[in-house]
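A reminder from the course coordinator: this example appears on the midterm review sheet, so study it carefully.

Given structure:
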């Protein structure tokens, strides 16, 4: 990994706010309007006012949600709601959670990581980013001059040597603790032992780091650093050379990757038979039941097979499910249409879904939808649980957000897709080839909380 450092984290003073659970929030990009309002009401100092301040009537270039966030941050620091730790520290961070009947604990540590542009060092992205999201985060960082949320970085450590070293420093220490809206328990311990921190740096220093989550914020941090450099304000030891990062070993027992399924709009209605015809000889087709609830059985079969080339599709026109398995002809077609990518990338389930199925085999259906007055592009809404897929099929997209973050319109989804997640090994292989996976190829559960620690860039 690049150079890592301890830092003086800004943390909530519990004497001011009471329970830490009341002032933390999920990452901004998974907060919808309903959750945003609930977090606003939960506590007047909830971090949502920093990471995702609300638009207000009369907002303009000088008074807006970014300037309000900066004002809150400044006031909270002045009032002692947020206080900088007196000693520079690394922060051990545990997340205890249940999934599919099993209890896990994901362990990592938060630190400052020296920024490197992707492709110029030993930090690798794995997903594509969107310009609008980066512009939004850049306005926020320019206003607040702080990392309000941490990047999520993965590093190889087969024996968990780095984390085990840190764990030894927390024995008998009492953590600060918060419980999120999903029941995940988050615990944080500061570690200030200089000798131990030096040992940690020596262990992780030679290792690569892969961005698991926070690509937009990482690239924004680079942009902010470069802005300061262009203005002549950046010194070699300036805080803006670094970004707040949660580092997790790829072999940690609590590391799990969940799928991100898709509910599509912007496509013409297709029946089971029509979809099978469009998929042609690229996939072998098997009927997999009818009705939204059959999604459970379809997903169970996909998980059991554990093959990236097995996809599940729901056709709303006739309320049916099918299983589609890639054929040699389909692999050859994918190699042709995605010749600009490696074989590893071509074989990903999300790559097959978007590049081969949606863009290539169903491209005419998207254009057909446009001729009928619809959006004209297949736009996915992303969900992670099969129950959410069923809800989307039954209720439409009124409550959801699409790939651009826009609220749904209430219409029916003509197509749903179940797809296997990329694995940690896929991330390593594809990242090292300087490639990026399609958006939402992975879902690292649980999400890191915002508000546990803030890194000032002043």
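Designed residues:
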């Amino acid at each position: 990994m690049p150079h890592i450092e301890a830092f003086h984290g800004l943390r909530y003073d519990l004497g001011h706010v009471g329970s830490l659970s009341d002032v933390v929030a999920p990452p901004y990009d998974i907060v919808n309007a309903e959750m945003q309002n609930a977090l606003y009401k939960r506590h007047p100092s909830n971090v949502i006012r920093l990471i995702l301040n609300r638009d207000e009537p009369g907002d303009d270039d000088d008074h807006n949600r970014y300037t309000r966030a900066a004002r809150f941050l400044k006031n909270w620091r002045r009032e002692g709601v947020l206080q900088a730790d007196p000693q520079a520290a690394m922060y051990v961070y545990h997340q205890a959670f249940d999934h599919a009947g099993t209890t896990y604990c994901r362990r990592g540590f938060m630190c400052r990581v020296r920024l490197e542009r992707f492709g110029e060092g030993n930090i690798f992205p794995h997903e594509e980013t969107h310009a609008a999201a980066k512009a939004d985060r850049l306005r926020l960082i320019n206003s607040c001059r702080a990392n309000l949320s941490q990047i999520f970085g993965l590093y190889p450590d087969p024996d968990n040597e780095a984390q085990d070293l840190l764990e030894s420093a927390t024995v008998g220490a009492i953590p600060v603790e918060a419980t999120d809206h999903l029941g995940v328990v988050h615990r944080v311990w500061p570690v200030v032992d200089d000798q131990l921190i030096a040992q940690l740096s020596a262990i992780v220093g030679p290792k690569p780091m892969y961005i698991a989550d926070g690509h937009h914020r990482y690239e924004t941090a680079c942009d902010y650093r470069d802005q300061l450099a262009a203005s002549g304000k950046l010194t070699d030891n300036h805080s803006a050379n670094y970004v707040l990062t949660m580092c997790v070993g790829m072999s940690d027992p609590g590391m799990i990757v969940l799928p991100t399924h898709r509910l599509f709009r912007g496509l013409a209605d297709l029946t089971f038979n029509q979809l099978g015809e469009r998929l042609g000889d690229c996939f072998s087709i098997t009927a997999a039941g009818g009705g939204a609830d059959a999604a459970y059985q379809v997903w169970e079969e996909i998980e059991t097979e554990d093959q990236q080339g097995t996809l599940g599709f729901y056709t709303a026109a006739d309320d049916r499910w099918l299983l589609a398995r890639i054929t040699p002809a389909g692999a050859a077609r994918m190699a042709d249409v995605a010749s600009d990518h490696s074989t590893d990338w071509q074989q990903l389930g999300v790559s097959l879904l978007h590049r081969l199925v949606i863009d290539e085999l169903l491209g005419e259906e998207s254009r057909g939808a446009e001729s009928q007055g619809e959006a004209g592009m297949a736009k996915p809404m992303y969900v992670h649980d099969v129950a959410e897929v069923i809800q989307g099929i039954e209720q439409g997209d009124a409550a959801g957000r699409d790939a651009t973050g826009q609220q749904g319109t209430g219409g029916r989804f003509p197509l749903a897709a179940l797809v296997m997640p990329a694995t940690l090994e896929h991330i390593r292989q594809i990242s090292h080839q300087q490639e990026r996976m399609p958006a939402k190829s992975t879902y690292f559960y649980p999400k890191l909380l915002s508000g546990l620690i803030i890194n000032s860039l002043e």
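The radius of gyration is 23 Å. The chain has two domains: 4-256+444-456, 260-420.
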